[in-house]
Amino acid sequence: MQKQNMTEELINDYTRVAYYYHKAGFTQEEIAKKMSMSRQRVNRILAECIELGIVQIQVVNINENYMDIETSLEKKFNLKGVYVINNLIEENIHDDLGIAAGRYIGKFIKDGDIIGFSRGRATAALVEHMPLLQRENLTVTQLLGSENNDRENIAVDDIVHHFAAKLQAKATKLYAPVIVQDSELQKSILKEPYFRDAYQVVKNCNIAIVGIGTSNSQVEHLSPLYAIKKAEIDNIIGEVSTHFFDALGRPVVPSFRNRIIAITLEDYLNIPVRIGIAGLPVKADAIYAALKGGYINVLVTDLETAKILEKKS
């Protein structure tokens, strides 16, 4: 094999295997589990890394600072993966994170997977910039209802539609608002056969791709929908897929919870791979809480935010 004939994704996998083995001290068995590949393939890649020049006296062709901090965060929060980018322009953060996530998450997506999305600019950017994957029998669905006040490109039903079109996946939509007028209407919708069928797909998701909201962003975003008062979310630090939590990641249940149409917290936490895409230091507390509470187990973020997360106790 010649390096010029390898894809960027394959080079990245080889580099990560080399780093985990030679620099991070993982065993081949641990790397195989972490990278979802056989031990024999890990062994073969390590040998080929030397032939390709990826491994010389030390691991090359990587930014050691990023790999060090990625590995540190993986160990600190017991994560399945971390991908850090060095974003330089704050205004581009959502596009930059989405592009990076699109390149990274392909390693988690296998034939037959059911992938659930939440709304957001970073998740929308991921879909827009995601490379075409050679996967079969994919299904994509919403993790929460739709919102009429969302811009078209970041609404969760639009994200699902665009992902399905791009990767030739089957799309399952909830055809319900994220919040309704009262709890009785919510109960009625949940009982409808069309919704129960759609929710069964949601419940069977094995990958979730979500954004992470802060308390301030939720006041701005949710108030028109929920008519909430700021005092009601004073102890809320963040939100994932309409589920709210405090600074330590403990669930906070607001009064309007029984009006929301979304995946339940129990079903959400049962999804094996929960990928969170979020960045900027202003979100560091919310991201930290999401990590502490187990709301995500894969993180795509920027370098400055990663440094803050690494230092937080």
List the helices and strands and how they pair.
Elements (H helix, E strand, L loop, with lengths): L7 H15 L5 H7 L4 H14 L11 H14 L3 E5 L7 H12 L9 E4 L3 H9 L9 E4 L13 H12 L2 E3 L10 H9 L1 H11 L3 E4 L2 E2 H12 L11 E3 L2 E3 L5 E2 L12 H5 L3 E5 L6 H9 L5 E5 H9 L2
Describe this structure in words.
With 313 residues, the protein is of the alpha/beta class. The protein contains 13 helices and 11 strands. It has helices spanning 8-22, 28-34, 39-52, 64-77, 93-104, 121-129, 156-167, 183-191, 193-203, 215-226, 265-269, 284-292, 303-311; strands spanning 81-85, 114-117, 139-142, 170-172, 207-210, 213-214, 238-240, 243-245, 251-252, 273-277, 298-302. A 7-stranded parallel β-sheet has the order 1-11-10-5-2-3-4, sandwiched between helices. It has a 4-stranded antiparallel β-sheet with strand order 6-7-8-9. A hairpin with a 2-residue loop joins strand 7 (238-240) and strand 8 (243-245). The radius of gyration is 20 Å and the shape is globular. It starts with 7 loop residues before the first helix and ends with a helix. The relative contact order is 0.13. Mean pLDDT is 87; it is low at 58-63.
